[in-house]
Structure formats: C-alpha cells, structure tokens
Design a protein that fits this description.
It is a single chain. By secondary structure, the protein is an alpha+beta fold. The chain is about 55% helix and about 15% strand. The chain is built from nine helices and eleven strands. It has a five-stranded mixed β-sheet. It has a four-stranded antiparallel β-sheet with strand order 2-1-4-3. Strands 5-7 form a two-stranded antiparallel ribbon. Strand 3 (about 155-160) and strand 4 form a beta hairpin. Helix 6 (about 280-290) packs across helix 7 and helix 7 (about 315-330) runs antiparallel to helix 9. It is rod-shaped and about 135 Å long. This is histidine kinase. GO terms for molecular function: ATP binding; protein histidine kinase activity. Its EC number is 2.7.13.3. One of its GO terms (biological process) is phosphorelay signal transduction system.
C-alpha cells in the first residue's frame, strides 16, 4: 500500500496591514506634496515667461518711439535750415509751425545752439515757477549738459559756412516707458511672492489639518485597548498563580502607550509650556531611551550648560522630539554605532543648542532638503512623519529651530535643536 505524502500548504509572505497602511499613507502624502510643488513651479514659470515677454515687447515699443522722436527732431532741424536759408519773400511759417507742433505734441525737450554757442530758442523745457533770467539760464545750461550726454547733436546748416546744433532728450513718455518694464517686473515678482506665500500658507494649513486629524484619531483609537489592558493588568495581579513580574512589565508598556496617546492628543492643541531644566530632561530621557534600543548603540551626553539653565518646554512633546531624532539616527546606523548628544549655550546669544550626532551612513544634499517633508523616508516601513512632527513641535510650539547641521556620506549626520534660553541671573 502506497501512502501518499501529504502536500505541504503553500507559504505566502504576508505583509502586515499596518505596514501596508503606512506605505499607502506615505505615498499619499508624498504625492500630495510633490503635486503642490509641481503647481508652484508651473506658476513661477508662467510668471517668468510673462515677465520676459513683457520686457521684450516694451523694449521694442521704446526703441520704436525713440526712433520716431529722433525723426521729429531731425525734421525740426530741417525746418530750421529752410527758414535760415530761404529767401525773405518765402513764407515757411505754416510748415514750420506744423513741425514745431509735432515736437510739442511729443513733449520732446529741445535746445537750439547757434554758431556762437548761444542756446536759443528752446522747446519743452520746464522752468521753476517765477524763475528769473539767471535761473532760467542755469536751468538751460544744466539741461544742455545732460542732452549732450544723452544724444549726439543734430547739425543745422545755416549757410555761408555757419552751423548750429540741436540738442534734445527723450520725452517724458519715452522715459516712463523705459523704466516701465522694471516696474512691471517688480510688480510681477511681488505678485509671485505673495502667491507663493498664499500657496505655502494654504499648504501648511492643509497639512496641519492632516496632522491634527491623524494624531487625534490615533489617540482616540488607542483609548479603548488601553482601558482593556489596564483591566488585564489588574486581573493578572489578582491571580496568585501568575508571576507578578508579568503584570509589572505589562504595566510599564501600558504607561508607555498612555504617554504616546497623550502626545498624539496634544497635537493641534496649544501645549502648556513650563520652565524646565534642559540638562536634566535630556540626560534622563537619553538614559531611558538607551535601554530600549539596540545594545550595540552607544549613547554619550556632553553637557556644557549650567545646571540651572532652563527653557520653556512641554516636557512630553520635547521628549518626543528627542526620541524621533535619536530613533532616526539608530535606523541610519543599522542599530550599530554611536550617538553623541551635545548641549551648549553659544556666547553672546540667548539660545540653547542641542546637537544629536550619529555615526550612520549620512545623507546626500538632495535628501537633506527633503528629510522634513511629510511622507519622505528612506525606509520601507514607517509613515515618514517622525521628523516632520518633530520639526513642527520645535518650531510651532517652542519657537525654536530643528535642522540638519551637517551630514557626510559614510560618516554620519548631525541634527541641531535650537531653543530660546531663559536668562540666568
């Protein structure tokens, strides 16, 4: 009798639902962020193209108007030549008046200088009110000096070897058009800047709603299992057959979960800030965290602050920031390496610096610019929100700064937290 070998059930590699959900959320956040950045660049490119097109078009108009004004002045010079060289019995007054009207219409400032270098007459020169002969002469000389630098003179043949010159400058309309493109470009840049601020403000408001909703929903969902776990702790304690250490360990985890719930519930609310000793909080929390990460990670704290140095902090949220940055460092080192925390107060400032340096793989400049973007992560697991929330906690709630101080591929990364220090008297 041949016995059949039982068939082995096929093994499927199932991915936890939590991991799938975190990856979907991370992709959704990154897609939203990248889409909004794309629209921002499109708006910027459109404004740039409009500005360049407007500059070229206006410059063309200025060039054409300048050529037209030059032709009008040349025609004015030609009219003067006819007047000076025509017989006395010929009347050119009507034609010359038409030429002068054209010059006056465009308001082209014109000064005629005769063969004796005497400026007279002039057109469209603005004199001060109630100006006397000496004042008018000074104004004409000043205008003439400017005109000589602006355009070459147009000669007028007076006959018998005599030559006069007509000097002119651009009309007020042409001057306006010449500077108009720069004014227009400034206005467009201002509009673009205001649009960018409005866009960024709307994006941050939308992100804040996402963070607040996600955090509060997480805190709400944790409430029910926490109550159940506390009941189980009491049950284990009441049962003599169960090792009491089991209930103690479970209670520690429950307390930890309660702290996490409190942190999430505080997101979106104005946290209470208290005058806290910075050194004590950082040192104690690093000691707490050191026991809960890989034993191959060595923590070191270098304190240069005075023991009495304090800052306005929300202890619960601030410890969350330290935890997020340190856990990011542990992941970057693959669970093996060193984390050095340095506390210092730079001279002549009212700041406290907390530098958290790791000996991990470091990051590129491109990743340095994206490390705080929501949903960005170099890990397969995780939501990519830890550093984003940490930055918001420091900057929005504590009026400080969180940024990448330095990073080098293969050597590690240093994050810096900057806080406002309370003055020690």
């Amino acid at each position: 009798m041949i016995s059949e070998t039982p068939k082995q059930k096929p093994r499927f590699r199932l991915q936890p639902v939590a991991v799938l959900n975190s990856q979907r959320l991370r992709r959704s956040l990154m897609d939203t962020y990248n889409q909004k950045s794309f629209y921002k660049y499109i708006i910027g490119i459109i404004l740039l193209l409009l500005s360049i097109g407007s500059l070229f078009y206006t410059d063309k108009l200025v060039e054409e108007l300048e050529q037209r004004e030059e032709r009008e002045v040349q025609l004015y010079a030609e009219g003067m030549r006819y007047v000076f060289n025509s017989p006395f019995d010929e009347n050119f007054n009507v034609v010359f008046q038409v030429i002068q009207d054209a010059v006056n219409f465009y308001q082209i400032p014109v000064i005629y200088v005769n063969e004796n270098n005497i400026p007279n007459p002039n057109k469209n020169i603005q004199f001060p009110a109630n100006a006397g002969p000496a004042e008018r002469e000074r104004v004409i000389q000043d205008k003439l000096a400017d005109m000589k630098l602006e355009h070459p003179p147009i000669p007028v043949d007076l006959g018998r070897g005599r030559t006069g010159n007509i000097y002119y400058s651009n009309s007020f309309l042409l001057t306006q058009l010449r500077y108009y493109p720069f004014l227009q470009l400034s206005v467009m840049l201002l509009i673009g800047y205001l649009a960018y601020l409005a866009f960024s403000s709307a994006r941050k408001a939308e992100q804040n709603r996402v963070w607040v909703g996600l955090a509060k929903e997480t805190a709400h969902q944790l409430g029910t299992p926490l109550s159940s776990l506390m009941a189980w702790v009491e049950y284990f304690r009441s049962d003599a057959s169960i090792d009491p250490s089991i209930a103690e360990e479970i209670e520690k985890d429950v307390i930890r979960l309660e702290m996490i719930t409190t942190r999430f519930s505080n997101i979106g609310s104005v946290p209470t800030l208290k005058d806290e000793p910075v050194t004590e909080i950082v040192t104690n929390f690093i000691s707490y965290l050191e026991k809960r990460v890989s034993s191959k990670v060595k923590f070191s704290v270098f304190n240069e602050l005075a023991d009495e140095q304090t800052a306005l902090l929300n202890k619960n949220l601030f410890e969350w920031v330290i935890e997020n940055v340190c856990k990011n460092a542990v992941d970057a080192m693959g669970g093996i390496g060193e984390i050095n925390v340095t506390l210092q107060a730079p001279p002549n400032t009212k700041e406290i610096w907390i530098d958290i340096a790791d000996t991990g793989k470091g990051m590129s400049k491109a990743n340095m610019n994206k490390i705080f973007n929501p949903g960005f992560s170099t890990k397969k697991r995780g939501w990519g929100l830890g550093l984003t929330l940490a930055k918001r906690i420091i900057e929005n709630y504590h009026s400080g700064k969180l940024f990448v101080k330095s990073s080098e591929i293969g050597k590690g990364t240093t994050f810096r937290i900057s806080l406002n220090a309370n003055i020690i008297e």
